[in-house]
Amino acid sequence: MAGERAATLSDVAREAGVSLATASRALNGSDRVVRPELQERVLAAATKLGYTPNANAQAMARGSTETVGLLVKDIADPYFSTIAGGLADEAEKHGLLVMLCNTGGQAEREQKFLAALRRQRSRAIVLAGSDTTDMGHTREVADLLTSYLDGGGRAAAISQPRLPVDTVVIDNHGGAKALAERLVGLGYRRAAVLTGPEDLLVSTERHAGFAEGWLEATGSKPAYVADEFSRDGGHRAMSRLLEDGPEADCVFAVNDLMAVGALAACRQAGVEVGKDLAVAGFDDIATLRDVTPGLTTVRLPLADIGRLALELVLGEPSAELRKQSVHGEVVLRESTPPRS
Amino acid sequence: MAGERAATLSDVAREAGVSLATASRALNGSDRVVRPELQERVLAAATKLGYTPNANAQAMARGSTETVGLLVKDIADPYFSTIAGGLADEAEKHGLLVMLCNTGGQAEREQKFLAALRRQRSRAIVLAGSDTTDMGHTREVADLLTSYLDGGGRAAAISQPRLPVDTVVIDNHGGAKALAERLVGLGYRRAAVLTGPEDLLVSTERHAGFAEGWLEATGSKPAYVADEFSRDGGHRAMSRLLEDGPEADCVFAVNDLMAVGALAACRQAGVEVGKDLAVAGFDDIATLRDVTPGLTTVRLPLADIGRLALELVLGEPSAELRKQSVHGEVVLRESTPPRS
DNA sequence: CTGAAAGCGCTAACAC
DNA sequence: GTGTTAGCGCTTTCAG
């Protein structure tokens, strides 16, 4: 039954017949060394008593924890879960525990989590996907982060350098632009973009990058229709596009999820993607690599991005903000065949 | 710059001109009440000093934390990330922080995480996907869990009731069996199962359930080929099946990921799924709902399962182990049309 | 209602 | 090497 007050270090010390300090040193190899004999006695006592160090007490005494926080918009979204996987892997290597904070994209929650992480004296914080054009919120987050940093914490962001912290910058603009160029190279001439909400930075950047590439290559600006940054958003946007009479021969959905929704909408409308119309996405989500037709997209090394972010935030603190750029790679598949 | 030793409660107390005790009571509404006037003074002092409570110190003093641990095999796998999403949502409602532990299916890591969670004095632990037929490891985990429980912790498992804790039992057997029956009802007569490794319980259960249903309905046992419990495993298994000459008119892959791999293998082999051959999966992973042909599967309420697990582990501790059953629902799609 | 004081479990000077 | 002894920051009796 739940009784038996957990054994503490003093219990172990007493049992081993040594001082508290020695027990402490024996159980966690500090710089000081203890005689092997005592060492053993302490270890034996610890096992005998089923001693487990109390991390909270250690954190207090040492003034630092073994915990890093990770803020994501939605862990169920493969984009974030892949990043989280990479980061979790890296954390494990460093013996760190990851606090998963699912913000649901709500500014309020995001701030609450930040505060909680600060209370926990989390060693570091990584923010993924909290890019918004909402300056009020960005400001608020920046403030929280700053006071966290002042307290000796470390933080990094993934995606856009809008926060006063180190960041793994994802080249959304460049990736989308490169994609546009490739599509033009394949013979496409009229594009439409399926984009997300205006206040979502990833979305607007990809849209802008694509538009820029397209404009430079063809002299014309792609049309666009905005909706949610999700599978259903893509479906709706594409449906609307189709209804309005598709002037386009090629559609760029700003992420793979939207692209898949678009694919479904086409199927339902009897439009054959890869023949009647080309469709491309962005991210190269692993589970989506088997859709038909194969989806042309811009591959992002998501797991590496997670790893990188942790490395960045764990690395030597530097005076100036570091930016680590990550570029996507265009992956051509059947959804955008060369145009005959 | 990072200086300014973070303000502590005593700083606040001094600033407000009250005792430590009063400051504590004012800042976190204990049972005791403080005069509104003082209350205000304390609050003001706290904001002025930018005070943030130290959760570790609170944990020590109170003897309990605001943290729950979640063990998953692979957070990048949509199955687990969806569960994690549901659980994270629920945790947020309870004001709890989630420690994400990515075990990678390694027994050793799993045990390390369990120990870490115990050290952290995590309020509760939820284990997802640690089902193995490896009794040695199961035993080890059971022991760790037991001592954690003895220390006043709470724990729950998702999937199979092999651990001495409350569990959200997923009816893999029943779901697969129901699927088999439906397929037979559709006119299929010769089945093959694409299954995972033998020591993976989910996989063996689904296989067994399907086989039982099939046997009862047709009098014959489905063939099977085993490989990894992943997209690539499904691909390889299906390829092998196809090479050996597909005696089957219908293939059941024990999860959607494998099924998608199988779909790809069929495509490459020129076998048209939904016509030449039927294919079904299990889980109903959201991002896979748009593959073509639509994949027949057994839908599991993954997010709810995550929520449920947390509710279970947070609920009134009961003497006997609780089991909360969750059943899947067969979802018929184009990959298994009625057989003409 | 408020304050003084005793811990919570552990680490890190500081002596020996 | 090993032991003593302050704290780390907060909560919670126990008096007043």
UniProtKB/TrEMBL annotation, chains A, B:
GO MF annotation terms: DNA-binding transcription factor activity; transcription cis-regulatory region binding
Superkingdom classification of source: Bacteria
Pfam family, one: Peripla_BP_3
Xref: Gene3D superfamilies: 3.40.50.2300, lambda repressor-like DNA-binding domains (1.10.260.40)
InterPro entries in alphabetical order: HTH_LacI (IPR000843), LacI/GalR-like_sensor (IPR046335), Lambda_DNA-bd_dom_sf (IPR010982), Peripla_BP_I (IPR028082)
Coiled-coil residue spans: none
Keywords: DNA-binding, Transcription, Transcription regulation
Domain HTH lacI-type: 7-62
Entry keyword annotation includes Aminoacyl-tRNA synthetase: no
PANTHER family listed in its UniProt record: HTH-TYPE TRANSCRIPTIONAL REGULATOR GALS, LACI-RELATED TRANSCRIPTIONAL REPRESSOR
Protein name (Swiss-Prot/TrEMBL): LacI family transcriptional regulator
Source organism of this protein record: Nocardioides turkmenicus
Taxonomic lineage: Bacteria, Bacillati, Actinomycetota, Actinomycetes, Propionibacteriales
